[in-house]
Automatic annotation (TrEMBL):
Cofactor: pyridoxal 5'-phosphate
Lineage: superkingdom: Bacteria
Entry keyword annotation includes Transferase: yes
A biological process from GO: ectoine biosynthetic process
MF terms (GO), sorted A to Z: diaminobutyrate-2-oxoglutarate transaminase activity; diaminobutyrate-pyruvate transaminase activity; pyridoxal phosphate binding
Protein name: Diaminobutyrate--2-oxoglutarate transaminase
Family according to the record: Belongs to the class-III pyridoxal-phosphate-dependent aminotransferase family.
Pfam families: Aminotran_3
Protein species of origin: Pseudonocardia endophytica
């Protein structure tokens, strides 16, 4: 392991919690160099919704390489991109009655967010933005400026400006009407709020600690944006691609954002790929005004196309995700109940994005460390890493889900002494 410690930058992080060398992976399991098998409820931070190396995608991918299909294509027209666009329109957009133009930014979530923010500013001619408490939108400067976490913001090394935070849903535990402050400062000529171009929001905050916004809150935000002339950007990088059940996490609210960012699981294979979806009237880019060398990652287009065909041509995966989400919810309810009197915790999340928040400092991290001793990969989230976070592949079998949930229950028991 010394080559990593000797040569790789101190910036490395996940590997510090899981100090083994992984070699192969399939479905919801990884195998290390010593042949030990690990159950993966981390799911590539949301990039592996269909598990590791899914067979249904591997075949077409190998075939594509075998016939020397375009690998690197900038934004040239290619068969792989054409097939993806056709499939995305037929399988995702049309059945949902959605009308969006598709932009391929550089292949990361942060790149999609940067594009969305630039475009919103270009459309409106305004520079100010509204973000929400505990938001996470990526690590580049624009994305960091709308991100909540003070440690991550600190890494910027310069002031992060031009965005004003508003309370996310439940920030005051329901003590104030939704958008009380937001609407007040928007309307008040004396509030000093800079006139905003757009809001950027996650429907369930992933890195922020699995905080779900209620349907009414999302509808209220859409309504407020429409009334006040703000563009609504939904960052669906982590909660999109079926993580909460439906393909887009905002579908349950019946709303249509003006701009949507998608990345993480869109390729289905863990290959880098990102999309910005833009209402046609807002597609005001000039040619090349936002670009990126790797925005035409064609092998990712191939696996993305097959992902949509295989998992999104019917509602089987969506229903299964909701069912498995309920199963996790039940298991978590039991854990919360069993710890009553020993430690304070509660659960939150939606679909198969779930977490348990522990009041006691450091407890969530201890549970994750204990789970790793039992060969289960789990991460923590929230501003103080107070939330034990579950993002198992959506394709995790019921048996594997039971196995992982039992490890979590056992780890909580051991760590809390309950
Ligand atoms: C992961 C994430 C990003 C950033 O994506 P990268 O690919 O890491 O740049 C942006 N927004 C949300 C909601 C994310 O979860």
């Amino acid at each position: 392991m010394t080559v990593f410690e000797d040569l790789e930058s101190e910036v490395r992080s996940y590997c510090r919690n899981w100090p083994v060398v992984f070699d192969t992976a399939k479905g919801s399991r990884l195998t290390d160099v010593d042949g030990n098998s690990y159950l993966d409820f981390f799911g590539g931070a949301g990039a592996l919704n269909y598990g590791h190396n899914p067979e249904v995608l591997k075949g077409p991918l190998l075939e594509y390489f075998q016939r020397d299909g375009i690998t690197h294509g900038l934004d040239m027209y290619t068969t792989a991109k054409g097939e993806f666009l056709h499939t995305f329109e037929d399988v995702i957009l049309k059945p949902r009655g959605l009308d969006y133009k598709v932009q391929f930014p550089g292949p990361t979530g942060a790149n999609a967010v940067e594009s969305a923010l630039k475009l919103a500013r270009k459309i409106t001619g305004k520079e100010a933005l509204i973000n929400f408490t505990n938001a996470f939108h990526g690590m580049t400067l624009g994305a960091l400026s709308v991100t909540g976490n003070s440690m991550k913001r600190g890494g910027a090394g310069i002031p992060l400006v031009h965005s004003t935070p508003m309370p996310f849903d439940n920030y005051f535990d329901g003590k104030f009407p939704d958008f009380l402050w937001f609407e007040k400062v928007l309307d008040d000529a004396g509030s000093s709020l800079n006139d905003p171009a757009a809001v950027i929001v996650e429907t369930v905050q992933g890195e922020g600690g699995l905080n779900p916004a209620r349907i009414e809150w999302l509808q209220g935000l859409r309504d407020l944006c429409t009334r006040k002339g703000l563009l609504m950007i939904v960052d669906d990088v982590q909660m999109g691609c079926g993580r909460t059940g439906p393909f887009f996490s905002f579908e349950i609210a019946g709303i249509q954002p003006d701009i949507v960012t998608i990345s993480k699981s869109i390729s289905g294979y863990g290959l880098p790929m990102a999309l910005v979806l833009i209402k046609p009237e807002y597609d005001q880019w000039g040619p090349g005004e936002h670009n990126g060398t790797f925005r035409g990652n064609n092998p990712a287009f191939v696996t993305a196309t097959h992902t949509l065909r295989h998992w999104w041509s019917d509602d089987v995966l969506e229903r299964d995700t909701l069912r498995k989400g309920e199963k996790i919810e039940e298991a978590f309810a039991k854990i919360v109940k069993d710890t009553t009197g020993t430690t304070e915790c509660f659960q939150k999340g939606r679909g198969m994005a779930r977490g348990i928040q522990f009041d006691e400092e450091g407890l969530a991290e201890k549970v994750a460390a204990k789970a790793f001793e039992h060969r289960l990969l789990l991460e923590t989230a929230g501003p103080d890493d107070e939330v034990l976070k579950l993002l198992p592949p959506l394709t995790t079998s019921d048996d594997e889900l039971d196995e992982g949930l039992a490890i979590i229950a056992e780890s909580v028991r051991t760590v809390t002494g309950s």
